[in-house]
Amino acid sequence: MTIIFSNHTIKYEIESTVKLFIPAIRFSFLYDERNCDGDLVMTRVKTGKSFTYLYVYVRIGDRIKRMAYHIPNEKVKADKNLCEYNLCRLVYLCLSEITELTPQWGMLTGIRPVKKVIDLIEKGFSKNELFAELKNKFFVSDEKLELAYKIAKIQMPLIKTNDYKTVSLYVSIPFCPTRCSYCSFVSHSIESAKNLIPDYIKYLCIELEKLGEDVRELGLRIDTIYIGGGTPTSIEAEDLQRIMECISKNFDILSVREYNVEAGRADTITFEKLKVIKDMGATRISVNPQTLNDEVLKVIGRKHTSEQTLNAYIMARDLGFDNINMDLIAGLPTETVDSFKNTLDKVILLSPESVTIHTLTLKRSSSLYLERENHFDNPVSQMIEYGMKNLMENGYNPYYLYRQKNTVENLENTGYAKNGKESFYNIFIMDETQTILGAGCSASTKLVYSNGKITRVHNYKFPYEYINRFDELMKKKSTETKEWRDFIATI
Ligand code: SF4
To answer: Of 374, 389, 416, which marks where a domain is finished?
Structure first.
């Protein structure tokens, strides 16, 4: 498909709107109007004497739709986003008619719809006004508005507990036993990365020590800790212990409200590792089945069975973990609605404290992307609906939600939790109201200022780069965090 941007630069937003209907496709872009074959979205802006004229022409196969709109020039001058919004709106309406699709999140393309709802509530919108605004302006369905509103109401009192000196710590262990077919993370197979692990841990611990010094110097309080990856439990129990001991030595873990370890894949979870995690003070772990259908597990490249997941879960319970999350993915290849339902029903019987349902994402860097056409008719919305209904009927409330690009049907990822078991870390990372200090390769540090400004500082993506350029990274990090450290020193 070709997208033409004629006489304007609203590229990113138009492309995102087209992707709502035509995901996971490489587009060609043209910046002037020319004849071209094949599917086409042509967008044009023309400024006249008194009006700015917007024009959209869409051709898919033998179906064609044109739409136009004009706005007084003084309004365009007063509101820079007016052209952008209305051009996207025309593209949305044309594509919706041609494809006969009605995206449930309408033309909202951002990854944080709940944040939008919270912003409107804080501006004084009533529930009805807020629903009218998002329905009329962005065509969001009632069902998704209810979901986002419910989550906003759960999150708002928890977000209020933040102050700028309260921060979270993210620690990255970027290794996995094998790569799942849908994975787009920078994770490295434990076999190929084995030699790097001792050095990786050495430098990770140096970075944690430095962060610990900063935390003490600036008078910060660590609120939550998240050890993620990759799969943190893919390293040996003693390596995990070294990292967690380093965390205990450098941070006051007794004042931490939530200490997460993403145990993740069942093929990496052992009694020794769970014991280390428990003894070192973690309060919440994830044991992620993704699916309890063994055939699907094979297809996605996971080298474990559903029975191993169940055993890992029982082992964690026996060790006394009282806050366990389980992640599922709706829309995995070869998964049917019935097999998804079967997984969810079994998970509910296990009664973990929280369940997160992700929608399959077709990211370019995943091997599954190559078979993307096979997933366009995926019955994922039925799975998402079943998950929401049944989890809510069984005492789980939706408490955080985010969207990713290129998810099947543009649906969302939602975390559900029993009362009082919502993960603060998950809420804060999505709401962006708390600073997150990142350590390890591919970790990012998110620095939040009182005026709403957010700065991101990224560590190098690959372990060998992290190890070999560690000093350079620490200098870069120190320079890029200086402004925030100066801001904190004034509080
Ligand atoms: S376990 Fe997670 S991070 Fe690791 S390969 Fe699978 S999807 Fe990627």
So the answer is: 416
Q: In this structure, what CATH number is given to the domain that contains residue 8?
A: 3.30.160
Cβ of residue 174 lying under 6 Å from some atom of ligand 1 = no
H-state helical runs in 219-290: 237-250, 271-279
Which structural domain range is residue 27 located in? 2-99
Distance 190 CA to ligand 1 centre (A): 12
Pairing state of beta strands 175-176 and 40-47? Answer: unpaired
Domain boundary among 150, 179, 211: 150
Q: What is the pTM of this model?
A: 0.91
Q: Is 176 in the pocket of ligand 1 (CB under 6 A)?
A: yes
- What is the position in ligand 1's atom list of the atom closest to the CA of 288? 1
- 36-49 per-position pLDDT tens digit: 889 999 999 999 99
pLDDT tens digit string along 309-320? 999 999 999 999
Start-end of H helices in 100-177 = 113-122, 127-138, 142-159
Give SS3 for 269.
coil
Split at pLDDT 50, 70, 90, the class of 111 is confident
Q: Is 177 in the pocket of ligand 1 (CB under 6 A)?
A: no
pLDDT classification of 177: cutoffs 50, 70, 90:
confident
- Same-domain check for residues 296 and 404: yes
The answer to whether residues 225 and 258 belong to one domain is: yes
